[in-house]
Fold:
Amino acid sequence: MKLFEYEAKEIYKLHGIKVPKGVVIAKSDDIEKKIEESKLKFPLVVKSQVLVAGRGKSGGVKFAKDINEAVTVSNNLFNLEIKGLKPNFLLIEEAVEHDNEYFASITIDRAERCPVILVSKSGGMEIEEVSKKSPESIIKYHVDPILGMRDFEARNIGYKLGLSGKELASFTSFLKSLYNIFEMYDGDLVESNPFTIVNGEVIALDSRIIIDDNSVYKHKELVANKEMSGEETEWEIRAKQRGFAFVELDGNIGIIGNGAGLTMATMDLIYEFGGSPANFLDIGGGANSERVKEAVSLLLEYPKAKSIFINIFGGITRCDEVARGIEGALKSVGKIKPIFVRLSGTNEEEGKRILKELGISSYNDPIEAARSTVNSVKGGE
Ligand code: GDP
Ligand code: MN
Structure:
């Protein structure tokens, strides 16, 4: 789950990281009044709060030298779509005068199985270019997840950045704070690009935090406004509320699989026969009939799905449970769409018997099942 910049900055502040003084304004606010009450000093930076990176390059970060400009710029930003998203909030901050932009990021190095820190003197909006053209200017450091980030490690990284004295001390405490946030929030990513150093002090101009989705339940307080951020579609939110991994796609064939790998392979099969998936839906391992019922019900209601392809390889998931789930969904939703089921594994015979009674074709071979599904939507559009 991605946090908004203003949320990430709140967390930064709690951990002793300095950020520019600012105020968050909502669409419905009286912008002029809110800025005046905040007593921020001009010039200001007005920043669109959308959950995508690269806002600067898309015109989502603007400067304002006085209140009139701030109001105009704010109105413009509320209406500016960035990578398909419009903000519900803006973050307005005092523009920090600075002559350096650094980059710091912590993420997981899956191959090394530990957190990895990347820092560079050449931060800012061109960091992707920097990493391509002069990768040597990016310092990479692996952290032992058991020991955590120790003082001397943070100091050494700062030293490699060319810092000393007060700057080095401030950077050391900054990097340790970033690491603490990364640990405490089960980060997929904790990043500040850019941060700057002014009068020996680190200031985070930008902040990003992405929390591992598996740990979101620990941070429920942060979930609420994500659902209205526009990042997820209505159907993705519905599916998420029911606990499914679901991605909305542009095609017309509904897909259900058990396990992310099998579900992706199922999508590939559909493409192979010239079809196009309407979604990705992984019901996970060991799903019982109730879970299957919820998943199938969702796709029966999901208007993009004209036919449904359910690909289950029954190991811990029992085929009879799957069949009963499908039966339950058909009874409760009552909307009939062509359903094709590949069932294989535990209690397969019983599962197939139930499906047969429902008049649903079941297959052993996923290739055949995929072909039939694709044929069922051909000419129907
Ligand atoms: P991003 O493009 O989504 O990563 O948004 P950033 O928050 O990084 O903003 C883009 C650029 O705006 C940064 O690289 C900075 O150069 C500039 N910027 C952001 N905040 C400030 C600020 O407080 N003061 C000044 N002077 N520039 C800023
Ligand atoms: Mn940035």
Observations:
- The longest strand covers residues 187-198.
- The chain has twelve helices and 16 strands.
